[in-house]
Design brief:
Elements: H1 7-11, H2 40-57, E1 63-64, H3 76-87, E2 93-95, H4 99-105, E3 111-112, E4 120-123, H5 131-139, E5 154-158, E6 160-170, E7 178-183, H6 187-196, E8 204-209, E9 217-221, E10 226-229
Parallel strand pairs: 2-3, 2-4, 4-5, 5-8
Antiparallel strand pairs: 1-9, 6-7, 6-10, 8-9
C-alpha cells in the first residue's frame, strides 16, 4: 500500500530544500529593513483621527491636534488641513469656499463637489467671508435620509474656543450639562444647525481652533448633542 503523503508535503514538494512558509517564520527573524515604517505625516494623521473620534464620543471636550513644526504659526486653515488629511481619500468628497485650502485638500485624492453633495465641508475662516453665502452653503449640506442617515455631511468650522458665546450642551457622551465658549460664529449659525437636525437626520460638526494659545484644538458636536445659547 502506498505511503500516505501529507498534503502540505505535496504542496511544498517542488520548492527548494529548507523552504519554510512565510507564516511559519518567527517575526523576530523577519529583516526589519523589510518592515515599512510610518512617516511623520502618517503619525500626524493617526493622531488627528484619534482626536476626532474621541471628540465625537465626548461632545464639548476639547482635544489637541498634532503640533506643527517648530517656528510655524498655526492657523484655522492648518487645522482644517490636518483634519482633511485624516478623513479624506479617493472614496470621499469635500467642499470648501477657501481656494487655497481646496488646492491642498486635492492632494488627498478626494473629489471636490458642490455643497449639496459633498461628504465633508471645510470652513476655516467664516468670520472673514460673507455670512449669507457661508450659511447658504452650510444649509445645503446633505443630512441623510431615514434609510441611510449616515449618508450625511460633516462640517469642519474654524472658530475661537474658550471665549465668546456660551453654549450649554446636553446629550449622549455628556455626563451632565456642560458649558462651551465659542467665538467667531453668529447666532444664525446655531439656529441653522438646530433647523438642520431632525434626528437621526442632520450633520455632525467639528469646531477647530488653529490659533488656540495651547496649540490647535478640536471639539466634536454630533447631531445627538442638544445646544442651548446661554
Amino acid at each position: 500500500m502506498a505511503a500516505h503523503v501529507p498534503e502540505d508535503a505535496m504542496l511544498y514538494a517542488d520548492l527548494p530544500h529548507g523552504y519554510v512558509p512565510q507564516s511559519d517564520v518567527p517575526q523576530s527573524d523577519v529583516p526589519q529593513s523589510n518592515v515599512p515604517h510610518a512617516g511623520a505625516d502618517e503619525h500626524a494623521a493617526r493622531a488627528t483621527f484619534t482626536a476626532l473620534m474621541w471628540s465625537l464620543s465626548y461632545p464639548g471636550t476639547v482635544y489637541a491636534l498634532p503640533a506643527l513644526p517648530m517656528n510655524q504659526a498655526a492657523t484655522h486653515q492648518d487645522a482644517c488641513l490636518s483634519i482633511g488629511r485624516a478623513l479624506l481619500d479617493l472614496e470621499t468628497s469635500y467642499y470648501t469656499p477657501d481656494a487655497a485650502l481646496a488646492a491642498q485638500l486635492a492632494a488627498t485624492t478626494a473629489r471636490t463637489l458642490p455643497p449639496t453633495t459633498a461628504d465633508y465641508h471645510f470652513y476655516p475662516a467664516c468670520d472673514s467671508s460673507p455670512w449669507a453665502k457661508v450659511l447658504a452653503d452650510m444649509g445645503a449640506a446633505k443630512v441623510g435620509d431615514m434609510l441611510y442617515p449616515d449618508q450625511s455631511a460633516t462640517l469642519v468650522v474654524g472658530c475661537r474656543l474658550g471665549q465668546g458665546t456660551r453654549l450649554r450642551l446636553q446629550g449622549p457622551g455628556i455626563a451632565r450639562a456642560t458649558l462651551l465658549a465659542v467665538d467667531g460664529l453668529p447666532p444664525e449659525f446655531w439656529q441653522l444647525r438646530a433647523e438642520s437636525i431632525h434626528y437621526p437626520l442632520g450633520w455632525d460638526l467639528f469646531l477647530v481652533d488653529g490659533q488656540h494659545i495651547d496649540g490647535s484644538r478640536v471639539v466634536g458636536l454630533p447631531r445627538t448633542t442638544m445646544i442651548e445659547l446661554v
